[in-house]
Amino acid sequence: MAAPLTSALLYLDGVSVSFDGFRALNNLSLVLEPGEMRAIIGPNGAGKTTMMDVITGKTRPDTGDVYFQGTHDLRRLDEAAIAELGIGRKFQKPTVFDAHTVEDNLLLALKAPRGVYANLVHHLSGAQARRIDEILETVRLAERRREPAGALSHGQRQWLEIGMLLAQDPALLLVDEPVAGMTDAETAETAELLRRINRTHSVIVVEHDMHFVRELDVKVTVLHEGSVLAEGDLDAVSADERVVEVYLGR
Ligand SMILES: Nc1ncnc2c1ncn2[C@@H]1O[C@H](COP(=O)(O)OP(=O)(O)OP(=O)(O)O)[C@@H](O)[C@H]1O
């Protein structure tokens, strides 16, 4: 089938996924514009993780369209090919190397340059060093750069993991529950950090913490039973009776 004509960065239309007859995603449609940051909320089992799994190629939809940058049909690509296209995912559980320093973790995550001439190596290490400085600044770990990652707080480890994702320079970052277990101060800093990242990257963030979602100040999609229940700014969706009923509580 021909790709739909869309200027969207990410385009999901009519996506359904069943596990043993149970519909985890049920005719889900979602459009993310280039440069956008979107917050995804919804009760346990709403399909948030399954949606991320479909976008990253971990789970194949039974039906529906999934396009990236208008032309890439993500249903036809495997996880590695989708990552290579520029979709990066941060899981809730950090996977940093504890014994390595913060900056070495970032260096390991930097995309290996392809087809590089040997006499450019020195020049490239300079570029890599600048990139690492930039990422350390963004994820607020410049002062901890020479410490082992194992010495970081829970929140700082999450930031390092976001930094490692940035090192791969994805066009779209998928971030799953970044502030779970963080202090209030770390949560506020994480909102600030993602807003900064969003100046140059598109982001989808799944999160239950409503204070955090408010601080992001972006369009919110509420999932429920595998479909979009409501979409809009947080005040609008919070005022939606159906959202109050299934998620926010009275
Ligand atoms: N591999 C699987 N096999 C069977 N059922 C699954 C599988 N993955 C997810 N499900 C079911 O699909 C539904 C949607 O799950 P999903 O993890 O996407 O929800 P979620 O919105 O991410 O929830 P949470 O907020 O708890 O993380 C759940 O009922 C879950 O039990």
UniProtKB/TrEMBL annotation:
This protein's GO CC annotations: plasma membrane
Pfam family name, one: BCA_ABC_TP_C
Occurrences of domain ABC transporter (ranges): 10-250
Nucleotide-binding listed as a keyword: yes
InterPro entries: AAA+_ATPase, ABC_AA/LPS_Transport, ABC_transporter-like_ATP-bd, ABC_transptr_urea_ATP-bd_UrtD, BCA_ABC_TP_C, P-loop_NTPase
Record key words, sorted: ATP-binding, Nucleotide-binding, Transport
Alphabetized GO MF terms: ATP binding; ATP hydrolysis activity
Superkingdom, natural source: Bacteria
Presence of the UniProt keyword GTP-binding in the record: no
PROSITE patterns according to UniProt: ABC_TRANSPORTER_2
NCBIfam families: urea_trans_UrtD
Name of the protein in its database record: Urea ABC transporter ATP-binding protein UrtD
Organism of this sequence: Salinarimonas soli
Taxonomic placement: Bacteria, Pseudomonadati, Pseudomonadota, Alphaproteobacteria, Hyphomicrobiales
